[in-house]
Description:
This protein is of the alpha+beta class. It has three helices and four strands, in the order αββαββα. The chain has one domain: Gyrase A, domain 2, CATH 3.30.1360.20. Strand 3 and strand 4 form a beta hairpin. The site of ligand H2B has 7 residues, from loops.
Amino acid sequence: MDASEHSDTLLSEAEVATALESQPRWVRDGDTIVRSVRAATYLDGIGLVDAVAAAAEAAGHHPDITIRWREVTFTLSTHSAGGLTAKDFGLAATIDELAAGIDD
Length: 104
Ligand SMILES: C[C@H](O)[C@H](O)[C@H]1CNC2=NC(N)=NC(=O)C2=N1
């Protein structure tokens, strides 16, 4: 399932806590979840950004992305809903798949 198939109903605090237990690479920061990936090289990080951008566009759900040399930080929130929804955790799972083998 990609993020476009997930509901944009706001998750409860309990639902967010449960979702984070199964996605341990992500940390809560207010109305967002955040993960940083440290790639072996700058271009590996850019390659990950490119792959995530394609997946995000296909899903119609887009992360905030910060690039600092070879560390790429993804911040997820459903802006239209004003907080965290299943779309964010769906995209988080996709990013985890794409980052597997990149994170050093
Ligand atoms: C029409 C389109 O689905 C919306 O503008 C989408 C696009 N991508 C988005 N991405 C994120 N993260 N939050 C949104 O509310 C959002 N809205």
